[in-house]
Every structure is written in C-alpha cells, then in structure tokens.
C-alpha cells in the first residue's frame, strides 16, 4: 500500500477528531461521481423517512417520477417509483457521518419506523456503524470514523493489513 496518501482535502468528510462538526448539507450542483437509485412504492413516505430519519434533504423532485435526495457533497440518492424489495438485500450502501450524529439518526429512524435500526457497532477498522433498513428495504449503513489511537486494537488490526495510520 505504498502508493496511497492522505487526501482529506478532496472529501467532505471531516477528520475524525473529538467534537468535530458535520459538514453543512450541500446544495450545489455537480456531476455526480456516484449515486444510489432506490425504487419505492411510496415516494412521499420514503422521502419522509430519508429526510426525517437519515438527515437527507429534497434537492429536487418531479412529482410521481423522481426525488433527488442529498446530505453532504457526493451523498446522493434517487428515489424512483417501483416495487419494494422483499426483505433487506445483502447489498448495502454506506454514508459517512460524524460520531455525534449516530445517536440522533438512530432515534429519528426508530421514531419514524420502529425496529428499523441495528447498532451502532464498533468495527475493527476504527469506525462505528449504524445499520438502518429503510421502508423500501434498502440496507443503509451510517458510518462514523473514530479518532485514531496508534496504540489501539483497531490500529494494530489496520497495521496487520498493511495500512499505516496517520502520524500523531
């Protein structure tokens, strides 16, 4: 992994530090480098869940045809008319957040759809993840990086894979 380098300056995701604030919701227009399309049998109900529960906003919509949702820059979701999947799929989509947002997202999702969340869970790759199953049965992972501690089990796990953490 010698050809990797820190590139936080091109990402809206802030460095994981205690008390770090989440970026503002991003309302600019750009060529989307990645987005997810989620079919739903109820555009209004799905929009409400993604907005109230997951913290997205309606960037634009065409009634009955599409709702373009966004959170931070490069976190785009297109809701489109279609059937709802039978059960949550194995495939998931992950969106970054900051640690201080996880409890609020979990509470908002549970209020909107009781039983929709699982976690948050500490992961060995130095993140905390909240799994959310949306009304369309999309599996969404809200993931927050933890501050890097070079002496932690997580740091050893990463080093064992050949990933060196940031210098203190």
Secondary structure: elements and pairs:
Blueprint lengths: L35 E5 L2 H10 L4 E6 L3 E5 L5 E6 L11 E4 L2 H14 L4 E7 L3 E7 L5 E7 L7 H8 L8
Derived from helix and strand composition plus strand pairing, the structural class reads alpha/beta
How are the strands ordered across the major sheet? 1-4-3-2
Q: State the separation between the terminal residues, measured CA to CA.
A: 20 Å
The largest pleated sheet is described as: 4 strands, mixed
Q: pLDDT below 50 for ≥5 consecutive residues: which ranges? A: none
What is the alpha-carbon Rg in Å?
17 Å
Determine the fraction of residues in helical runs and give it as a percent range: 10-25%
Instruction: Report mean pLDDT, rounded to a whole number.
Output: 90
Summarize the structure.
By secondary structure, the protein is an alpha/beta fold. It contains three helices and eight strands.
Tell me what the structure shows.
The chain is of the alpha/beta class and 168 residues long. Helices cover 19% and strands 28% of the residues. Strands 1-4-3-2 form a four-stranded mixed beta sheet, with helices on one face. The chain is globular, with a radius of gyration of 17 Å.
What characteristics describe this protein?
alpha/beta, 168 residues, single chain
């Amino acid at each position: 992994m010698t050809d990797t380098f820190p590139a936080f300056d091109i990402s809206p995701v802030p460095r994981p530090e205690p008390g770090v604030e989440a970026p503002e919701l991003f309302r600019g227009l750009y060529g989307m480098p990645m987005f997810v399309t989620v079919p739903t049998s109820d555009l209004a109900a799905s929009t409400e869940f993604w907005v109230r529960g997951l913290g997205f906003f309606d960037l634009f919509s065409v009634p009955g045809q599409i709702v373009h949702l966004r959170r931070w820059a490069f976190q785009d979701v297109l809701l489109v008319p279609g059937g709802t999947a039978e059960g949550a799929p194995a495939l998931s989509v992950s969106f970054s957040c900051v640690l201080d947002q996880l409890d609020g997202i979990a509470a908002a999702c549970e209020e909107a759809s009781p039983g929709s969340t699982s976690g948050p869970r500490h992961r060995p790759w130095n993140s905390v993840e909240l799994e959310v199953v949306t009304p369309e049965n999309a599996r969404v992972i809200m993931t927050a990086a933890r501050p890097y501690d070079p002496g932690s089990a997580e740091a050893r796990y990463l080093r064992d894979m050949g990933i060196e953490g940031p210098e203190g």
